[in-house]
Write a structure and sequence with these properties.
The chain has 2 domains: 238 residues, Phosphoenolpyruvate-binding domains (TIM Barrel, Alpha-Beta Barrel), CATH 3.20.20; 29 residues, no CATH class. 41% of the residues lie in helices and 13% in strands. It is built from 11 helices and 8 strands. The chain has an 8-stranded parallel beta barrel, surrounded by 7 helices. Strand 3, helix 5 and strand 4 form a beta-alpha-beta unit. The longest helix has 17 residues. It starts with 11 loop residues before the first helix and ends in an 11-residue tail after the last helix. The structure holds 3-methyl-2-oxobutanoic acid (KIV). The site of 3-methyl-2-oxobutanoic acid has 11 residues, from strand 6.
Length: 271
C-alpha cells in the first residue's frame, strides 16, 4: 500500500459514515488478483476473501477444509488487485473459535502477511473471548450470524436460519453483543427479511446481508454466483448478472474446434 496513493481507500470509518448517511454498502468476494481487479474497478466498497474459496476455488462441499495458509495466499493475491475497496479476510474454521490466543495469532498473521484491513469471524456469544482478543489487538472484526457455514455440521442443512423465535432472539442478542465488543459490521446470512430489518434498525454498526432482504445496510455476494460461473448452484438470494458458465464453455469449444480445423492460428496470428 502506497502512502502517496491518490485513491481514497474505503475504511471502517467509511462503513460507519455510510450507515449514518443511508448509502448502501456493496461487497463481493474475490479469491485472486484478476477477479479482485475487476471487482475493484466495478466500484465495490469492500472485497471479502471468503472461506467460500474452499467451495469455489478448491471444489470442497463445505468451507471447513480450507487452511489459514491457503486463506493468506488468496488474500495476498487479492490485495495486489485492489486500489479502493476495503480488504476483509475470513478466519477459517478451527483457527479462532475456542482459544482467544490462537484467534489473536491467526488474525495477526492475516494482517501482517496480506495487507488486509479487517477479518471476519462466524458466531456470537460462543466466540466472545476470541472476538475481544482480536479487537484488543487493534484489528477490526466483522461478525457473521444466521447461516454460518463453518457450523454446517451442527445445522445439518443450508436452510433458512432464525425462523423460530428462540433462534431469532439469540441472533438479536448475539448481534448486540458483537456491537458491544466493538465489531465494525456484521454479515447476516439467510434469515427472514423482517429479522434482517429489525437487527439493522437496532444496531448502530452496519449490517451486510446475504439472503436477509434489502433493509440491511449493505449486501454481499459470492462473485461466482453473480457471474453465473457455476450452473449447478442457484441459491434464491443470489442474482445472476451474467451467464459466464455458458459463455466460457462455448468459447472453449469454439477454440477446440478451431485448433482441430487448423483455423487457429491464422496468418495474422503467426510470425
Ligand atoms: O465465505 C464467504 O464467501 C462468506 C460470504 C458468503 C458472506 O462468508
Amino acid at each position: 500500500m502506497s502512502i502517496h496513493s491518490e485513491i481514497k481507500k474505503v475504511t471502517t470509518e467509511t462503513f460507519r459514515k455510510m450507515k449514518v448517511s443511508g448509502e448502501k454498502i456493496s461487497i463481493l468476494t474475490a479469491y485472486d488478483y484478476s477477479m479482485a481487479r475487476l471487482a475493484d474497478e466495478g466500484g465495490v466498497d469492500a472485497i471479502l476473501v471468503g472461506d467460500s474459496a474452499a467451495n469455489t476455488m478448491a471444489g470442497y462441499e463445505t468451507t471447513l477444509p480450507i487452511t489459514l495458509d491457503q486463506m493468506i495466499y488468496h488474500a495476498q493475491s487479492v490485495y495486489r488487485g485492489i486500489q479502493r475497496a476495503m480488504l476483509i479476510v475470513d478466519l477459517p474454521f478451527g483457527t479462532y473459535q475456542s482459544d482467544p490466543i490462537q484467534a489473536y495469532r491467526s488474525a495477526v498473521r492475516v494482517m501482517k502477511e496480506t495487507g488486509a484491513s479487517a477479518v471476519k469471524v462466524e458466531g456470537g456469544l460462543e466466540i466472545k473471548d476470541s472476538v475481544k482478543a482480536i479487537i484488543n489487538a487493534g484489528i477490526p472484526v466483522m461478525g457473521h450470524l444466521g447461516l454460518t457455514p463453518q457450523s454446517i455440521n451442527k445445522f445439518g442443512s443450508f436452510k433458512l436460519r432464525a425462523k423460530e423465535e428462540a433462534e431469532a432472539e439469540k441472533l438479536i442478542s448475539d448481534a448486540g453483543l458483537l456491537e458491544e465488543l466493538g465489531c465494525f459490521s456484521i454479515v447476516l446470512e439467510k434469515i427472514p427479511e423482517t429479522l434482517g430489518e429489525q437487527v439493522s434498525r437496532e444496531l448502530s454498526i452496519p449490517t451486510i446481508g446475504i439472503g436477509a432482504g434489502n433493509q440491511t445496510d449493505g449486501q454481499v455476494l459470492v462473485i461466482h454466483d453473480l457471474l453465473g460461473l457455476n450452473k449447478d448452484f442457484k441459491p434464491k438470494f443470489a442474482r445472476k448478472y451474467l451467464n459466464l458458465h455458458e459463455q466460457i464453455v462455448s468459447a472453449v469449444s469454439q477454440y477446440v474446434a478451431d485448433v482441430k480445423s487448423q483455423d487457429f492460428p491464422n496468418k495474422e496470428e503467426s510470425f
